[in-house]
């Protein structure tokens, strides 16, 4: 092997190791990409309004609410910062098993707050916001919880992207998911395009993005963007609220001890994100954490043959 070849192999290996380290830490961007999280955070904080509310329940299912009803739950800058903070809180929630992401007051989220968008409409600021939100949403998807977006009303632009940062999507009747970016002369920037391709395949992703198609619940089910449809609770008296329906739907996947749910999510994530050999090794390591563990021993003791 020539010295030149050896150097370039070393360089490739080095990049690969950094990539794996970043994947395991959860962060997509660092100072090597010119990204300074604190600096972006400070800038975003200037665009106030709304909140991101987190309710952790004893059931192990948390509810994260996008709350800015006077702007159809659009994301102000301070909401972007709060989202990242809530994700941090969920990352260390050892008893957590599931997460419902929803919008306040009957609608999901209308994307970025267009007032903030206008104020930072230059490529440098746009890129910083984009990196901040990619980090936050990638970490949201990588939480050791089974997550579901409860889509009521509209999920537009960044709101549509947010739905793809959950493991599943449940759509209420009359709800719409629409990647309106093309109408804005944009492409998704919060990681929504990359995730959409994983969810619906590149053909459907191109149709949804290229046509800025409105996806209702039936179309959503047909292409695999929606995983279930919820009944409008106000129609039938005594009907369950949408949150209750989402909790019931989710409980099928969150039954059991938290460490087992965390382990399951980790093997699925590594299968999705890593190369096969690395995914297999991760699966082996995770297997080692549950094999002979309390849940495993209890299950074995309760079985009679
Ligand atoms: C990279 C950019 C991309 C991203 O970040 O990924 C984006 O997300 S850009 C934003 C994309 N979103 C949109 O283009 C949606 C814009 N809004 C609408 O099309 C409509 O408002 C609606 C969501 C379809 C609702 O229509 P309607 O029911 O007729 O209500 P109003 O239009 O009267 O809205 C009520 C109220 O809410 C304000 N609003 C709605 N969306 C936003 C928004 N994204 N940013 C800021 N404000 C928003 C709207 O202006 C109304 O306010 P008032 O006029 O003060 O009542």
Automatic annotation (TrEMBL):
The keyword RNA-binding does not apply. One of its GO terms (molecular function) is methyl/ethyl malonyl-CoA decarboxylase activity. It holds the Pfam family ECH_1. Its EC number is 4.1.1.94. InterPro entries: ClpP/crotonase-like_dom_sf, Enoyl-CoA_hyd/isom_CS, Enoyl-CoA_hydra/iso. It catalyses: (S)-methylmalonyl-CoA + H(+) = propanoyl-CoA + CO2; (2R)-ethylmalonyl-CoA + H(+) = butanoyl-CoA + CO2; (2S)-ethylmalonyl-CoA + H(+) = butanoyl-CoA + CO2. One of its GO terms (biological process) is fatty acid beta-oxidation. It comes from Channa argus (Northern snakehead). PANTHER family: ENOYL-COA HYDRATASE-RELATED, ETHYLMALONYL-COA DECARBOXYLASE. GO terms for cellular component: cytosol. This is Ethylmalonyl-CoA decarboxylase. Its main location: cytoplasm. Belongs to the enoyl-CoA hydratase/isomerase family. It comes from the Eukaryota. It is found in: Cytoplasm, Cytosol. Keywords: Cytoplasm, Lyase.
